[in-house]
Amino acid sequence: MNAGVLFGFLVYLALLAYIGWWANKYTKTEDQYFVGGRKVNVLAAALSDKASDFSGWLMLGYPGSAFKAGLGAFWAGIGCLFGTLADYVLIGPRLRIYAGKFRAITVPDYLEARLKDDTKLIRILSALIIIIFMTAYVAAQFTAGGKTFAEGFGVSVNTGILVTVIVLTAYVITGGFFAVVWTDVVQALFMLLTLIVVPFLALAKIGGLDKATEIIASADPTKLHPFGGATGWAAIIFAIGYASWIVGYLGQPHIVTRYMSVEDPRKLRRPGIFISGIWTTIVLWGAFFAGFLGFALYQAGMLNVSDPERVIPAIAVELMPSWLAGFVIAGIISAVMSTADSQLLVASSAIARDFYHKVLGKELGKKQMVNISRVVVAIVALFGLWFAISGPGIIYQMVATAWGGLAVGFGPILTLSLWWKRVTKEGGIVGMAYGLVSEVIFEAKIYGWAFNPDAPSIWGTIGGWFNGVPVFFINFFITLFIIIIVSLLTKPPEDVVKLHEELFRKVPIETGRKSITETRAKSQVENVAEFVMAKGLA
Predict the structure, then answer these.
(1) 109 versus 454: which is more confidently predicted?
(2) Is 86 exposed, middle or buried (0-12, 13-18, 19+ CB in 10 A)?
(3) Which of 277, 301, 498, 532 has minimal CB crowding within 10 Å?
(4) What residue numbers bound the domain in which 307 lies?
């Protein structure tokens, strides 16, 4: 084991330990444990949001995909960038306003209150969706941590998985949401620095972009084609297959929970979009080129890598001083932990709060609920550990499977409930039930819980037109359609419709102290949020 690499990583580990200790002072109640008391600064929330979003997939899975697919993998980055923007436009501000009005701590809290569901079915379905797919998602992060430790420290992948589980679970149990948010901020900065430095090092080593493309062209010309060599309809399907991540952003509880914690919903528009947009653009560029150039290094005999998903840690160990490579390894572990910590917290809330407390009606003190949540975190981590060791072991596939399940389960109902006053609890129940059952069947039976964008999907089997389009992308729109049809056949309570109209009606432009130009300079969402807060509606 390289002592320099170990030193760099231990410095990072000490920083995480300090943040967990500090955050524990602000984690005394259930509200603080799960959403930070709704007082999180927009800068911290935005960076935490993106660090939670871009997991080991960004540092290992996506570079591995670029290593294997070449230029065509860039479409996945396009999907992620526009998905990020869609979240801030369609979900963030309105969800924060509604969450404040209902005092919602979790996504199931919000959905039950918004749809006025007294049957508890929405909360039960939400908990099942979260437990099943979030545990699979956590397992993907554990696998990513195992691969990183294996490449950086020369241990087995399973040993690396075990170390990841121990470190991660410890600080989530200790600090709750504050620990997760502020470690995410540090981790986002580590990820950013890593994905700026590594591609430039690879470019310098290979001798420039022209040299890299020359080497790649001689090895496999299709890797330089934006559609993997496909043309016509096949090219469109190729792009959709990789960019399909976009719909998933609307239904990821570990991401949208960040919006519920922000102190001021108005800041989720311009500051939030600016911070997230810039960060996302840089890291996606860096991750793609790390894998793309890593393939050139491999073909030139300058890099030895046994697994395409280990290309970034391999470049770090090969091209950097050992102590600096330790910080890069820490940056990769940052990506893993920044997502897994949020997912553990969301899974914990689904079991402890949504099922044990709300469905079973177990009344406990706030401190007792926090302690139960910590026990649940440990249990979910153990299940994730088992699946990480026994699962397919391909991070891109594992993340896509879990991402798709959450996208179909939550994305359609969340979007409709925030923008359509006519949606009903019956529509939500039927849609979520269909999403849960269909995704479990499709993913387990068709893909074996290992999504592959290059493999024929069920839609390709049926018609031959949609080969390469993942099940969850089309299933998202089927679920959306089901919710709309059932809602049109049923009737929402009048007070629910009235509240929606009151919260989100167009706010007239006032010409009091501010000029019309100054007022119009704000987005409509900012005007609505200002109106809502002034009227004490949230």
Answers:
(1) 109
(2) middle
(3) 301
(4) 3-21+44-507+517-535
